Amino acid sequence: MDRQNILTIILVLSLIAGGYVWYSYLYPSENAESTVSEDQIISPEFLAKTALLDKTKIDADFLKSGIFFELESGPALPPLPALSEINGRPNPFAQF
To answer: Its domain of life (predicted)?
Structure first.
């Protein structure tokens, strides 16, 4: 067989196999059992921590306090250089 024919056959078979795998993930068979592993079960510790987070109340009144309004911003950023001062080629991907 010609090398190009072999490559074509391999390409077609891989496309068919990829299509089958893709289709089986999109439309799983109804006969398949849904197995639940231990990793997928939510632990009681996780549920307890989630419940603790739900009970937590954050007091945002400090955003309205005078101390917060007295805060000052940091130093100003330096100005950007002019386009004529920027070093480098106009098109770094152009050939020399």
So the answer is: Bacteria
